[in-house]
Design brief:
This protein is an alpha/beta fold and 563 residues long. Helices cover 32% and strands 19% of the residues. The strands form seven sheets. The protein has a seven-stranded mixed β-sheet, with helices on both faces. α9 (293-303) links the parallel β15 (286-290) and β16 (307-310). α2 runs antiparallel to α4, α3 crosses α4 (159-175) and α4 (159-175) packs parallel to α6 (220-231). The protein is globular. The N and C termini lie far apart (69 Å). Residues 1-36 have low confidence and may be disordered.
């Protein structure tokens, strides 16, 4: 049995929640699991169910040069659900003056990488085995639940959403077990002009690389991008979001238990400007950034464009004229807009509904679904990057447009103790008339992404479908989209005139599809990148190198005139 399958504490996984009640709050708090702890793997260094219960919170470490280290100062991460509880953990607040070991570590890596098709090829095989072991570990119920609880400790989302993130990560790792890592670097040959000549195209690593990852998927996004970087022969430094750092710290400890050399990855906890100093201070060949478009633009400018970005996503859904499966469509709209408390880059930001759906009460069904969300099961909860007032201000600004109105939500959650630095609002939808939305003075406000349980809704008909297409053309970011229609003529018109990189089409179309089995990423931007698939890994973490073999001088060669 692999060592990481052994566990501390209870041999049988128990999932337990303690109910916290007060005059101001009544919700379920994840806490210590009664008399015995949950199954904590032997390689792990923290029990996530106990976070927030101790005056001395867990201290996350940096990893550099193969060693776990601290920094002189720390940042404290508050409990996201209860401002009166203890912090959940601290992270190193690494300063520019402490970057020396990270700079030295990356400077040791040549441009040709740690491995490539001609150098250390056995490492492709090693990482196939590491991926197999890690995938097997995440596929066991105990370790899957461990990471599910880690995610829920710092990004309160429903158990189903957190467990789904773990499943996708496990499936990705299983996909690249065995020989599939080396197949990412498959070369191809083209016959030359004469005997002894052949050109061979290779996928070549960049060498020292960096990842900056977001808070909303603290396991899936960093793991998929990190492993892609490692598979292709790079040496990555990972800078996670501060609020969720401990999740990837624990995953790195799992990778080491699965056979990864700890020297293969550096793990840096710091504020954004310090990470930028590292990225620009050493020859980082490429940085993969997932996060806000504002930070992406700053990083692109600082690095001279050496960034692969998966940034903002103001994601649209167009519901076509063919009405059917109303309950399903309403359920999917609710999931797309409000699952994970709306904090997905693929979340449904705007929904264009054909007027034919008025008669079947689609909006009323969507409103009823939104009303079922509650703090008790984390289907509503804290918004980690936008405050309550910012969300309500945006809501009121849109609702003040002529003909606009709040359809549901638009209020602060009641009975909560979420810290003021976070947002706490009901799932919200604002109706804006299409013609009003399309006015020059209103359009940018209507299509401004707000990373929260919030969406814009509008109606259209057969006569103004082209206005919908104008709206889709005018949006600046093209990540995900959904065309909810089985009408082939309507579907073709929408798909032929749009560009979003991950687009679902058909009655079951959604915006929040990010599994491991297909490309997920934006389109229409040469800086854009994908995640999860072989093509995405090759695009982001390797470049093309052509080697032309030309070996034999013919016996009939004679010196001729110069040219």
């Amino acid at each position: 049995m692999l060592s990481h399958l052994a566990t501390k504490g209870s041999p049988r996984l128990q999932q337990s929640f303690l109910t916290s009640t007060s005059t101001t709050a009544s919700y379920i708090v994840r806490a210590a699991m009664s008399s015995s702890s949950m199954a904590v793997p032997t390689w792990a260094t923290v029990d996530p169910t106990k976070m927030g219960t101790s005056a001395e919170p867990y201290a996350v470490s940096n990893l550099v040069g193969g060693k776990w280290t601290k920094a002189q100062n720390t940042m404290t991460i508050p409990h996201p659900m209860d401002k009166d509880m203890h912090p959940i953990f601290t992270i190193p607040d690494t300063q520019v003056s402490e970057l020396g070991p990270f700079l030295d570590s990356l400077k040791k890596v040549p441009k040709s990488g740690v491995h490539n098709p001609l150098k250390n090829p056995e490492r492709y095989v090693q990482y196939g085995e590491i991926s197999r072991k890690a995938g097997a570990a995440l596929s066991t119920p105990e370790i899957a639940e461990y990471f599910t609880q880690c995610i829920m400790a710092c990004v309160p989302k429903s158990h189903a959403q957190a467990a789904g993130e773990v499943r996708v990560t496990a499936a990705f790792l299983n996909n690249f077990a065995g020989d599939n890592v080396r197949r990412l670097a498959k070369s191809f040959g083209v016959p030359g002009d004469h005997y002894g000549q052949m050109s061979v195209g290779h996928r070549w690593p960049y060498g020292p690389v960096a990842l900056v990852t977001p808070f909303n998927f603290p396991l899936e996004i960093p793991v998929l991008q990190l492993m892609g970087a490692l598979f292709m022969g790079n040496k990555p430094v990972l800078k996670p979001s501060e609020q969720v750092s401990f999740v990837m710290e624990q995953f790195l400890r799992l990778l080491v238990d699965c056979g990864m050399d700890p020297n293969d990855v550096d793990f840096l906890n710091c504020k954004g400007p310090v990470a930028q100093e590292l990225i620009t201070g050493v020859p980082v060949r490429v940085t993969q950034f997932t996060g806000s478009s504002r930070v992406a633009e700053l990083l692109l400018k600082a690095t001279g464009g050496k960034v692969k970005i998966e940034d903002a996503g103001f994601d649209w859904k167009v519901i076509g004229p063919d009405v059917g499966d109303v309950d399903y469509v309403a359920w999917q709209c609710d999931q797309d807009a409000y699952a994970s408390i709306g904090q997905k880059c693929s979340a449904q930001s705007i929904c264009f509904i054909h007027e034919n759906w008025k008669e079947v009460g689609l909006l009323e069904k969507m409103q009823a679904k939104a009303a079922q969300r509650k703090l008790d099961d984390f289907t509503v909860g804290p918004v980690l990057t936008v405050t309550t007032q910012q969300i309500l201000d945006h809501t009121n600004k849109l609702a003040s447009l002529p003909g606009a109105k709040v359809l549901w939500g638009g209020k602060e959650l009641t009975g909560h103790k979420i810290p003021e630095i976070y947002g706490a609002v009901e799932p919200t939808a604002v109706f804006v008339p299409l013609e009003e939305m399309m006015k020059k003075e209103n359009f940018d406000t209507c299509v401004n992404e707000i990373f929260a349980p919030f969406q814009v809704i509008t109606y259209y008909n057969d006569d103004n479908l082209d206005l919908v297409l104008q709206a889709l053309e005018g949006m600046s970011h093209h990540l995900t989209a959904a065309c909810v229609s089985n009408d082939p003529v309507f579907q073709s018109k929408i798909l032929a005139n749009t560009v979003n990189g991950t687009t679902y089409a058909g009655r079951r179309a959604r915006t929040t599809g990010a599994p491991q089995n297909h490309w997920f990423g934006p389109a229409g931007d040469p800086r854009g990148c994908g995640i999860g698939t072989p093509e995405a890994i090759q695009l982001v973490w390797s470049c093309h190198r052509e080697i032309i073999h030309d070996s034999f001088v013919p016996s009939t060669w004679t010196d001729g005139p110069q040219s």
